[in-house]
Amino acid sequence: MDLFEKCQRYTKPKEAEAAGYYPYFIPIQSQAGPDVVVNGRRMIMLGSNNYLGLTQHPKVIEGAIRAVERYGTGCTGSRLMNGTFDLHLELESRLARFARKEAALVFTTGYQVNLGCISALVGRHDTVVIDKADHASIVDGCMLSHARVVRYKHNDMGDLERTLASVDRSHGVLVVVDGVFSMEGDLANLPEIVRLKREYGARLLVDEAHSVGVFGEGGRGTYEHFGLVDDVDLVVGTFSKSFASTGGYVAGEADVIYFIRHTARPFLFTAAIPPASAAAALAALDIIETEPERRAKLWENANKMKRWYDELGFRTGNSESPIIPLIVGEDVRLAQFWRRLFDLGVFTNAAVAPAVEPDRALIRTSCMATHTDEHLAAAIEVVQQAGKELGLI
Description:
Number of domains: 2
Order of helices and strands: HHEEHHEHEHEHEHEHEEHHHHEHEEEH
Largest sheet: 7 strands, mixed
Shape: globular
Number of helices: 15
C-alpha cells in the first residue's frame, strides 16, 4: 500500500469546502480585536481567546517593537545552547512571582509546556490520570511519556476517586487537568481534586491556559479562584490568550522546574520564543497586575452574554467562564448555524468530534474585555436571528 493513499481518500473537509460550510483556516486581514476584517468585510469577533483584548494595547505593541529594535527578530537557537536572552530570565522571574511559586520556565508554545512537563516527569512505570475533556496537548504529553494513562469521566469526582484508588502507588502518580475546559467553558472541581490527590499521594498539574488573566483576584487562574495557590504542585499557562503573545510557562517548586529545564525534550530541542514575544508577554503581565478593571469588564460582558443566550433558549451547558458554547448536537445543523452567523457578520468557532463529544457539536463563543455594549447587542441580534431560522430556539 502506498503511504500517501490515505491522503487521496481524505475528502470530508474538501466536501465541506465545496458546499460552503468549511469553518476553518479563515484568513483575518486585521488586528485580532473585538471586530475583525475578513474578505474585506468587518465582522464582530466572538471566536477569540484574546480575553483581555491586549493584542491591541499600546504598551504591549510598544514592548514588542522595542524588543525587536534591541534584540532583533529571533533567537536562532534553543534555550539550552544560544537562545537564552536576559529577557527570557526576566520573564521567568516575573512569572514565578506572579504565580506565587518558587520558579518558572518559559516554553516556545503552550502546547509544548504540557508535552514537555508530562513527558519529563512521568515515565514507563508511572501513571498519569487525566480528565476525558483535557486538551490535546495533555493527551499528547501522556503519549510521549510512555507512562500508564488513565482517563476519568469528565468532572466526575467519584470516577476520579475510583481511578486513584486503583492505581499502583509504588510508582509516581500525576493528575493533570484543565482549570477551564476550552470548548464548553466549565471549570474543573479543583477543591475536590486537591483533596483526592492528597489522600492518594498524587501530584497535581493544572493547565490555566484559558483562566490565567481571567480568574482569581489577581488573575492567576482557577487555582487562585478556589483559594488553592499553595495546594497545586504545578501551574501551566500560555501566552497566546490573555497574554497577547505566543509561548507558555510552567511554575512550581524550584527543584522540579530545574529538572524540567534539563530533561524536557520539547523545551531542549526547540528554538526559544522571539524577543518580541517575550517582551509582549512581559507588558501583558504588567497590565494584568495593574489593570484589574479589564478583568471586571470581561466578566461584565461574559455574564451579560450568558444571560442573553439562556433567556433566548440556547443550550449553554455548564459554562462558568467567558467561553460560552451554543450546543447544537448534530454536525450538519452546526455547519448551517455557523455559516448563517458568518454570513450575518459574526465570527465564531465550530467544534465537532473529537474536540467535543460526538453528540455535542457546538458553536464556541467567547467574550473579550474590549467588546462594547454595541458589539454585544449586534452579535446577540444575529445569534437570535440565525437560531430562529434553524429552529434552535
